[in-house]
Design goal:
Blueprint (H helix, E strand, L loop, with lengths): L6 H4 L4 E7 L4 H6 L12 E8 L3 H13 L5 E4 L15 E3 L6 H8 L1 H24 L11 E5 L2 H14 L10 E2 L15 E5 L2 E3 L2 H14 L3 E3 L4 E5 L8 E4 L2 E10 L16 E10 L4 H7 L6 E4 L5 E5 L5 E9 L12 H14 L8 E11 L6 E5 L4 E5 L5 H16 L24 H21 L9 H10 L2
Parallel strand pairs: 1-17, 2-3, 2-12, 3-9, 5-14, 12-19
Antiparallel strand pairs: 4-8, 5-7, 6-7, 10-11, 11-12, 13-16, 13-17, 14-15, 15-16, 18-19
C-alpha cells in the first residue's frame, strides 16, 4: 500500500450520492440495525457464560442448548449481536484454514491436521444445513470458491499452493486448476490461471448473525447487549469463574471468551491477539449489460493470489463487494468502522483491475472491522477445566466457517465429551503473546508494506515471474 493517497488519486473514484464511510457495515445498512436487547440487569448465575455475541459465541450457545436444553446459558455482548467481525466480513463461508499445517502437525501428526482440514470442508455443509433447518435466510448460495492469478508470479504460487493443499487434506476434486473455457464463466481481466474449490458459499454476514441470534434466543439463551465486560476471572478455590461487567458480575461453571479482534481490550489480554483491520467497499448495483460481460452467474466467492490478497462476492442484489487486509490497527484508535482514504483507493483500484467495465459504477459504502491474529497466526480452541475458562478464535480472517466448528468443539469440551472434534490439533494450541506496543504495531506495518511492495514488483515482472524475495522476508518476520 502506498503510504499516502493524494486527492488526485482519490478523485477518479466514483461515489454514490448515498456514499457512506463507516458505521457497522453495508450489510447492516442493508437490513437495518437490530433493536437492542436489554443489558444485564445485575448480578447473575449461569451454568455457562459466553463473552461475545458474534459467530463463535452464538454457535457455542446454540450447540450447547441443542445438546442439553436445561443448561442455563448467557451471552454477554458489549454492543449488539454481530457488531464485530461477524457483521462486517466478506461473506466467505469456506473451508479455508489460516493456521500453519506444519505447526499443528508437529504436535499431533500430519494425519490429525488432514482430519482438521476435512472437518472444515464438512463444516460448510453443516452451516448450510443448520441455516436451512432453522429458517435463517442469509442469501446463501453454494457456488464454490474461485481463485485467480493475474501475473506469472501469482500463477506459479497458485499452482504450488494447490499441490501443497493436496498433500494436506484436499483431494483433486476439492481444489484444482480450471480450463480457460470453464463454466460458469467469470471474466477477470488479466487472469492467466484460475482455480476452483466447491467447499465455499456466499453469505450475507449480517443476515446470518442476526438470524442466528434470533434462533439462539428462541432456544432460551439469555443474550445481554450493551454490557461491556471488564474482566474475566478464573475459578479460585471455592469461587466460581466470573465475568465482571459494569452492570454486575456473572458467575458460571464455565466461561467462554469469544471476543476475537476485541480480545486485547480485556484486562490481562492486551498481548494475546493483535487486532488487525480488514476493510471493504461495495458498489451500487451493477447494470445487467455489464454482468453479461463479467459473467459470475455461479455467485462464487472470488479471491486472488496476491500477497496482499483481496476477497469479493457478487451480492444478492447484484453489487460487487470487495475487501482486503488494511494496515494494523493503531493502538488507541477508535472503533467507528471508517476506512482510511488510501485503503478505499487501493480496493477500488483492485476492483477495476479485475473488472475494468465497472469503473464507472459508483461506490456506495466503505467500512472496516477488526479480526484477531495470534502471534503464530494459528487459530485455537481451548477449555481449561481447572480455571473454568475457555476460548476460541484467532481465525486471522477465515472465521465464518471456523467459528461454527469452534462452537461445536466448545460444546463437547464444556460438556466433558471426548470426541473426534476435541482431538483435532487446534484444540489446546497455545502460543506466546505479541511483543509490547509500539513494537508489534511497527513490526506488522513493516510486514504489510513488504507484501504490498512485493505485489507491485511482481505485477511489473521485476522478479522475472517468480515470487518476490521481499515476500519471503515479510513471511520470516511475521513467523507465519
Amino acid at each position: 500500500m502506498r503510504p499516502f493517497t493524494t486527492a488526485a488519486q482519490m478523485r477518479p473514484i466514483p461515489r454514490s450520492s448515498r456514499f457512506a464511510n463507516g458505521g457497522v457495515s453495508f450489510w447492516f445498512r442493508d437490513i437495518g440495525l437490530p433493536e437492542r436487547r436489554p443489558s444485564l440487569p445485575g448480578a447473575a448465575d449461569y451454568d455457562v457464560c459466553v463473552v461475545g455475541a458474534g459467530y463463535t459465541g452464538l454457535w457455542t450457545a446454540y450447540y450447547l442448548k441443542k445438546a442439553q436444553p436445561d443448561l442455563r446459558v448467557a451471552v454477554v455482548e458489549r454492543e449488539f449481536a454481530g457488531f464485530g467481525a461477524s457483521g462486517r466480513n466478506g461473506g466467505w463461508l469456506s473451508a479455508e484454514f489460516s493456521g500453519s499445517r506444519e505447526r499443528y502437525a508437529q504436535s499431533h501428526g500430519k494425519s490429525s491436521m488432514i482430519a482438521l482440514q476435512r472437518v472444515m470442508m464438512e463444516t460448510v455443509n453443516e452451516v448450510v444445513s443448520v441455516t436451512e433447518a432453522e429458517g435463517v435466510d442469509a442469501d446463501l448460495v453454494r457456488g464454490g470458491m474461485r481463485l485467480v492469478a493475474t501475473n506469472a508470479a501469482q500463477q506459479e504460487r497458485l499452482t504450488a499452493e494447490i499441490e501443497y493443499l493436496q498433500e494436506w487434506g484436499y483431494w483433486p476434486d476439492d481444489i484444482h486448476l480450471l480450463a480457460h473455457d470453464h463454466e460458469p464463466r467469470l471474466s477477470v481481466a488479466g487472469a492467466v490461471a484460475s482455480a476452483h474449490s466447491p467447499h465455499a458459499a456466499r453469505v450475507h454476514p449480517a443476515k446470518l448473525v442476526t438470524g442466528l441470534a434470533r434462533v439462539v434466543a428462541g432456544l432460551g439463551v439469555d443474550i445481554f447487549e450493551d454490557t461491556a465486560v471488564e474482566e474475566i476471572r478464573p475459578r479460585r478455590g471455592a469461587a466460581r469463574p466470573a465475568v465482571v461487567t459494569g452492570h454486575g458480575t456473572v458467575t458460571a461453571d464455565h466461561v467462554v471468551r469469544a471476543t476475537e479482534g476485541f480480545t486485547s481490550a480485556l484486562r490481562g489480554q492486551r498481548r494475546e491477539w493483535i487486532p488487525m483491520r480488514s476493510s471493504m467497499i461495495v458498489t451500487e448495483p451493477v447494470p445487467a449489460e455489464l454482468w453479461e460481460k463479467i459473467g459470475w452467474e455461479g455467485r462464487e466467492v472470488l479471491g486472488d493470489a496476491a500477497h496482499a490478497y483481496v476477497y469479493a462476492q457478487r451480492t444478492a442484489d447484484d453489487r460487487i463487494a470487495i475487501g482486503g487486509r488494511g494496515v494494523p490497527h493503531r493502538p488507541g484508535a477508535g472503533q467507528d468502522g471508517s476506512t482510511p482514504p488510501q485503503e478505499i483507493a487501493d480496493l477500488w483500484r483492485a476492483l477495476t483491475r479485475m473488472f475494468p467495465d465497472v469503473a464507472d459504477v459508483p461506490v456506495e459504502h466503505a467500512w472496516s472491522g477488526l479480526l484477531g491474529v495470534p502471534r503464530d497466526w494459528c487459530p485455537s480452541v481451548h477449555m481449561d477445566t481447572g480455571s473454568g475458562l475457555g476460548w476460541a478464535g484467532g481465525y486471522a480472517g477465515s472465521g465464518v466457517a471456523a467459528a461454527n466448528l469452534a462452537g461445536r468443539t466448545l460444546r463437547d469440551l464444556v460438556l466433558g465429551r471426548r470426541t473426534e472434534l476435541t482431538r483435532l490439533p487446534w484444540v489446546g494450541h497455545q502460543v506466546r503473546g505479541w511483543e509490547p506496543e509500539p513494537l508489534r504495531w511497527a513490526g506488522t506495518r513493516v510486514v504489510h508494506g513488504l507484501y504490498r511492495t512485493a505485489d507491485r514488483r511482481e505485477s511489473r515482472t521485476e522478479d522475472k515471474g517468480h515470487t518476490s524475495r521481499l515476500a519471503g522476508i515479510a513471511t520470516r518476520i511475521a513467523r507465519r
